[in-house]
Design brief:
- The model is unreliable at 1-24 and 34-48 (pLDDT under 50).
- The termini are far apart.
- It is built from 2 helices and 12 strands; from the N terminus they run ααββββββββββββ.
- The protein folds into 3 domains: 48-140, no CATH class; 141-203, Antifreeze-like/N-acetylneuraminic acid synthase C-terminal domain (Type Iii Antifreeze Protein Isoform Hplc 12, Alpha-Beta Complex); 212-263, SH3 type barrels, CATH 2.30.30.760.
- It is an alpha+beta fold.
């Protein structure tokens, strides 16, 4: 911010000169105090800026590597990462860390997308401190979207899906290859053009309600089989209610295969 000093219109020239001389006069002690203040303050300000830059560079480097590793493991193709960093004001008062900084996760997010929390800490011989930083990240990449509106309980086919580049900003799992989703069953109605989330689908039922199934009982090495009627749709590894045909009793069993389940004891 700049300041501009203007003289009043009714000042006489002599008065103006007098004011100027008075303002220009500085006591030697003031000059010395200013020099001392600058001597101690400027290095401190420089160190604060150095520490802040050190943290920003470290967090940026670590986060970009984190996203790179995640993208490689998940086979992301041609992704673009955008992110912003927020550091607390307290960073301005932290001493420079002479050892390598350490970063740790402060949230439970599975994806490096959205609002993320990271803790940065320093543990050298002279300084020990820790701060929390916020990262707001978005990623643009080709993902699987629905080609049309799909009703609930629909088994997905290639005709239902397509791949488009989208920018993702939230913690919501997705697919990058249609083959990952083909054959899965929708658990809700999905509008056309929606990014297909893993929470929108499930493995298709291997047991349909009303089917006659094989019940397997295994206890202490003894195996017995009987027949039952499925009282609900069954998915691999999930429990369902089954009515034993012989006894008429309703029991719970774990789905182990096509029209097959294992009884629980």
């Amino acid at each position: 911010m700049s300041y501009k000093k203007e003289r009043k219109a009714n000042f006489r020239n002599a008065e103006t000169k007098k004011v100027s001389r008075k303002q220009g006069k500085r006591h030697p002690i003031h000059t010395m105090l200013l020099a001392v203040w600058l001597f101690f303050t400027l290095p401190s300000l420089a160190m604060e800026a150095q520490t802040e830059n050190q943290i920003k560079q470290y967090v940026s480097s670590q986060f970009e590597q984190e996203v790179h590793d995640y993208a490689r493991n998940e086979h992301w193709q041609h992704y673009r990462l955008n992110y912003e960093l927020w550091l607390p004001k307290s960073v301005q008062h932290l001493p420079k860390c002479t050892k390598r900084l350490f970063i740790s996760t402060r949230d439970y997010h599975s994806l490096p997308i959205g609002n993320l929390k990271r803790a940065i800490s320093c543990n050298d011989l002279n300084n020990t401190w820790r701060i929390n930083v916020t990262i707001k990240a978005s990623i643009s990449l080709p993902v699987v979207v629905t080609d049309k509106t799909i009703n609930r309980n629909t088994t997905l086919s290639a005709a239902d899906l397509k791949v488009e580049r989208r920018t993702l900003t939230k913690q919501d799992s997705f697919y990058t290859d249609p083959n990952q989703a083909i054959g899965l069953e929708t658990i809700r109605r999905i509008r056309g053009g929606t990014v297909l989330s893993q929470s929108d689908v499930q493995v298709s039922a291997v047991i349909e309600k009303g089917n006659e199934i094989i019940l397997i009982a295994n206890k202490d090495g003894f195996i017995a089989t009987t027949k039952g009627i499925a009282l609900e749709d069954g998915y691999l590894g999930k429990q369902i209610e089954v009515q034993n045909i012989s006894s008429g009793n309703v029991i719970r069993a774990v789905v182990t295969g096509k029209n097959q389940a294992k009884t629980l004891f």
